[in-house]
Amino acid sequence: MTLMNLLLQGAFAAYLLAFSAYLLHLFWRRPFLGRLAFGLVISGFALQSLCLGLRWSAAGFLPVTNLFGTQFFFSWALAATYLYFEIRYRIQSAGLFVLGCNLALLLSVLPRNPALPPLIPALDTPLFTLHVSLSFFGYAFFAMAFSLGVLYLLQRRLDSPRLPDLALLRKLNEESIFLGFCLFTLCMVFGSIWAYIAWGYYFSWNIKAVWSSLVWLYFGGMCHAKFVRRWQGGVYAWLSIAGFGVVLFTYLGIGLLLSSNHPLG
Amino acid sequence: MAANIPLTRLWRLLTSLKLAIVLASTATVLIMAGSVLMPFNPAVFANLDSMILSRWMQSTGSSALALSWWLPLAGSLLLLLWLNTLCCFLDWLIHLRSRWRKAGEYLLHLGFVLFLSAYIWGSLAGFRQEGQQVFVGQTAPTPRPGLFVRVDRLEPLYNSQGRPMDMLTGLTLLVGDGVVASVEARANHPLLWRGMVILPTSMGEGWVRSPNRGPQRLPYSVLTINYDPGARLAAAGGIAMTLGVLLALGSFYRKRARGERPEIS
């Protein structure tokens, strides 16, 4: 077993234990469980970062050119997003869904061949690295917004002391959407420049590019929707949930259900 | 005074946040539905990137209106969104003294306006030409009158296993006999000149009849020659968006550090 496999499996185990500890913490509110889970997420993230660093160094480019690479990077971005909110707001079990997504992605990555594919010349540019990494960080924030949206609706129904209060959930949801939109905007800018020098046009009508523009338009609309008083909170939570559906279709649905000539399927 | 009331109302409508949300969401839903038709009808949509949009609408699009009707409708909605966004930006400029803190958000608006303007300009007044064969040493006219392209040299680049990976193509752009641009083109390094982009897409060998030496077997390059008069405007839009995102992020964290929530009015 290679060092990279060991690191990957170590990260998966750490996230799985962290997920379990947060679940226990949700029902049995002991501070040490929260601290333990946070420590485990940090450990998993450190192992995954090391694995990503080794793969990047071995390949000589950010290894996100196949499904293994993109799922691995998306999972890493989800963990980083979770840590951002945990360190900033101590959200603890409020990020369970994001950790769950992270675990699901890693679980689907584990049986796949981790071999590094050769880099085709069209992808050999820093614009590609920026475009892909920013898109996955955008997606990760939108996944976090989905999680917070679901929790907001749950909390509104349950009014549980185990979950963060509605005002905090709403604030975090809006922050998630705002940050995701900012990163996704940069992803689109760098993607357009790359498309122009690689194919001679800055907007393509391939279905993945069209849906990426729709993701941008949708979340741009959401950044405006938070100003509509009647929509603050509940409607915004539903919009976050629907938005993640659009993200999932753009990332996975198009590649799996339809055909696209986008470089990443 | 009375004459001003309808104008004021019109201005309020044009700068309305709710209008932006309605237009963005309607366009999003329409394009979502329409774009799903694209992969299932390649005979209609596969060549959308091969020509400018106005030419595609005049040729392929107009002969398949049952499948392409959503494109002009979505275009009309996006034009209205463009107008709404432009008016919002102008309204912000008028009230700059009291709203300068929102500079990041409004630079994003400006970026969107510039980018869409550029795309419309390019879709009406640009051109795209694929598959132009030019033999090494020969000069060929481009679709832009008075401009010629010369292929100076052609060198395939191989990977360590001896497989061709890329090609180095010496390209020179001429106005009459005068050289205006020259480049060693390869993947992601096209010839760029005032909205014109020339990319070698493949290569081959063929027979050329030379008046002095008879038939000769020579390598040729297959070129894509695109012209988009809005390319520099699109770049300005990209810069405005990038600056907007950076300013909006800075402003967001400064407000959060002060404990303000001014984003909810």
Written account of the structure:
The complex is a heterodimer of chains A (265) and B (265). Chain A is mostly helical and 265 residues long. Chain A has helices at 3-27, 31-59, 67-89, 96-109, 126-158, 166-199, 207-225, 234-257. Chain A has 2 domains: 1-119, Four Helix Bundle (Hemerythrin (Met), subunit A) (Up-down Bundle); 123-265. Helix content of chain A is 76%, strand content 0%. In chain A, helix 6 packs antiparallel against helix 7 (207-225). The model of chain A has no long low-confidence stretch (mean pLDDT 90). By secondary structure, chain B is an alpha+beta fold. Helix content of chain B is 50%, strand content 29%. Chain B contains 10 helices and 8 strands. Chain B has a 4-stranded antiparallel sheet. In chain B, strands 2-3-4-5 form a 4-stranded antiparallel sheet, with no helix packed on it. In chain B, helix 2 packs antiparallel against helix 7, helix 7 crosses helix 9 (103-125) and helix 9 runs antiparallel to helix 10 (231-257). Chain B is elongated. Chains A and B meet through helix 6 and helix 7 of A and helix 2, helix 9 and helix 10 of B.
